[in-house]
Amino acid sequence: MDEQKAKQAIESLGYEVNSLRLVPEGIKHYVFEFKSQNKLMFARFAKTDNLERDPVHGGALSLEREAYLCSLVRNKAGLPAPQTEGPFQFQDKRFLIAEAMPGIYWNKWLKNQNYSLNAYLRSLEFLGGSLAQAHKVVFSSFGNIMNEGVVEPEGIMNFADRLNQIIGFKIAKEEEKNILSKSERNRMKKYFARNLEGLSSGLKATPQKPSLLLTDIHPTNYSVDETGRPCGYFDLETCQAGLPPLEFLAQQVTMFNFFDSDNYEKARDAFFRGYEQNGGAYEKDSQVNKKLESLLYIGHALSCMTVYHGVRDGIRDEWSEQSKTMLFRAVEKEDIDYTKFSDMFRSKTKQPNKPNLS
Prior knowledge:
By secondary structure, this protein is α+β, with helices and mostly antiparallel strands. The protein has two domains: 3-99, 2-Layer Sandwich (Phosphorylase Kinase, domain 1); 104-349, Aminoglycoside phosphotransferase (APH), C-terminal lobe (Aminoglycoside 3'-phosphotransferase, Chain: A, domain 2, Alpha-Beta Complex). The protein contains eleven helices and twelve strands. The strands form three sheets. It has a five-stranded antiparallel sheet, sandwiched between helices. Helix 7 (244-254) packs across helix 9 (287-307). The longest helix is centred in the middle third of the chain and has 24 residues, at 182-205. It is globular, with a radius of gyration of 21 Å. The termini are far apart.
């Protein structure tokens, strides 16, 4: 979609477009940043009428769902999320208008702080408190939060059943690409089946309410102010009604492990300090929660193996094979090491291995 057509679409709503540029990172959308009377805004145009499904959780994606979730996070959880307008139709394209959030991406902020350990830990404490605020919003069952607060599929009361669905989506994606051998796939499936059965029994004994999970908070996906406090959550189209470990997965694989293993526990402790201070309750040493975290780790390794299979760009060539190694070390040896993900991504992100202690 070219800038001229985007400009015409935006102006059809009565906006005066002073400047406009295409933001290149849109996957399912053409995203344009524009200024109108010195106010910065975004227009998100769906690339196709059918945005397909969230490849991780299986929920149908739509501009209506995205607009609703922004409203839910802003109004029910009290967190900074964009005001939106639409969706609108212009010729053959549907689009949404969203306000730009203040602050800068967390990873850019941390770089500006010269990768200070103290700044890093403080920011994670803020993030923990912010996500605890979201988790106070509860639903009647587990699943994808859709437009108007409907949770799909209906009536899932044990999170192990929901996790079984999510892992099933991941396995189906791998089978489409046919990456694993028959014996490897069978070993993986047996591991999931055995552990999900045990998890189901454990969750029945300690039932918990489905909470609002943002699910996709990582270094380039939310903004912070000058102190490192979150001031903008803007990529919310995959929100879930689930248990907190599903939320914490994104932090485990991108935030707590941002530096090396020496700083992983410090980061995790800082996050949960903020989480608990704002009323979040999470038993980090509970066997049920540990099992949940392990299954989510293995599921993430499976997703990475599948997503990066066949990618040859000089940077991510080995990521699929490295993810496969992580997957089977966890399945066969219970070797859970989140820093292996950051070590793998470091070739692209260029993030340092050590924080600045000064």
